[in-house]
Design brief:
Layout (H helix, E strand, L loop, with lengths): L4 E6 L5 H10 L3 E7 L3 H11 L2 E3 L2 H4 L7 E4 L6 H10 L3 E5 L6 H14 L3 E4 L6 H11 L6 E11 L9 H17 L5 E7 L9 E7 L5 E7 L1 E13 L3 E5 L4 E5 L4 E2 L8 H14 L8 H20 L3 E2 L6
Parallel strand pairs: 1-2, 1-4, 2-3, 4-5, 5-6, 7-10
Antiparallel strand pairs: 7-11, 8-9, 8-15, 9-10, 11-12, 12-13, 13-14
Helix pairs in contact: 1-8, 4-5, 5-9, 7-9
Length: about 325
């Protein structure tokens, strides 16, 4: 395992520049090249980390020393860049959402399988140590049986966003986490979404997911709240567990006491990209697969449709 994986980042704006930073820092990866339609921006990042600069991903993908690629462009470009990358026989990590539409996402998943390449989707909260600790605590029975979960992901509108609404940008994180926490797919979704300050896309959403045996998950997401909040609450038959995604702090409240164990903070993005590289080097399926990204998109689009129709939507994953 002394081999370094040659990687590149396509799209080095608000979030992509962090991918470049982490890849350049990891011992198992070598940041070979970066690409952005804004060549000056790409050049700044390339010079900072000693990588080659490109303004056209097609030229970058001809490099034999690039084995894996992070795609951090706008969502509307995900499908084209992912298909191009897979066609070039590279492994790929696509930031969430996997694509603009279910049809595009399904094409990416199918093509990755056809090409026998690793496809991972950037659901960073899967690699938040707080989530992993919460899952471990649940497995040990520390909160009893899980009954419901509530998530809140709110803050001011991120100016980086211009091609999707809050459901596919913010709420989709929590949709994926709920699938992970409940260890199953939801059966129905009911949602109310709308826009107060942004005319093109929805900027607030309340989503309810129902699971088997009457269990439920509630998700609140918006681009309206002044304070940045990222919280998850798990209600069990014996205790309530709360997680602050940002600080990674966990609080467990039982009938007798309130516990707040201390842990070392770790950067989720570093853990995520480290896992991506290791999954390729060890030839193992990544924690977050293309199918996970596709299912989250199916649920997100059903939530938007639910709001438009004013009723709950049954979820079907038979074509996923």
């Amino acid at each position: 395992m002394n081999k370094q994986l040659g990687v590149a980042v396509i799209g080095v704006g608000f979030w992509g520049k962090n991918h470049a930073r982490v890849f350049s820092d990891l011992s198992k990866t070598e940041l070979v090249a970066v690409c952005d339609v804004n060549v000056e921006r790409a050049r700044d990042i390339a010079e900072q980390y000693g990588a080659e600069v490109y303004g056209d991903s097609r030229k970058l993908l001809k490099r034999e020393d690039v084995e894996a690629v992070s795609i951090c462009t706008w969502t509307t470009a995900h499908a084209a860049e992912a298909m191009r990358t897979l066609k070039a026989e590279k492994h790929v990590l696509v930031e969430k959402p996997l694509a603009s539409t279910i049809r595009e996402a399904r094409r990416i998943v199918d093509f990755a399988k056809q090409k026998d390449r690793h496809l991972m989707v950037g659901f960073i909260e899967r690699f938040n140590p707080g989530i992993q600790r919460a899952k471990d605590a649940m497995k040990k029975g520390e909160i009893g049986e899980l009954v419901s979960a509530t998530a809140k992901r709110v803050s001011r509108w991120p100016e980086r966003i211009g091609d999707v609404g809050v459901v596919k940008d913010y709420a989709i994180h929590e949709i994926d986490i709920m699938r992970k926490i409940f260890e199953e797919d939801p059966t129905t979704v009911y949602a109310r979404v709308g826009n107060l300050k942004h005319t093109k896309f929805e900027d607030y959403a309340q989503i309810m997911l129902t699971f088997k045996r009457g269990k439920t998950a509630f998700i609140e997401a918006n681009w309206l709240t002044p304070d940045k909040i990222r919280n998850l609450t798990l209600t069990g038959s014996d205790a309530i567990m709360s997680l602050n995604y940002l600080t990674q702090e966990i609080t467990v409240e039982t009938l007798e006491e309130t516990l707040k164990p201390r842990y070392e903070w770790k950067e989720p993005l570093k853990l995520e990209l480290q896992h991506f590289a290791r999954s390729i080097l060890k030839d193992k399926e990544p924690e977050v697969t293309g199918v996970d990204g596709l299912k989250a998109l199916v649920i997100a689009e059903a939530a938007i449709k639910s709001s438009k129709k004013g009723r709950a939507m049954k979820l079907k994953f038979d074509k996923v």
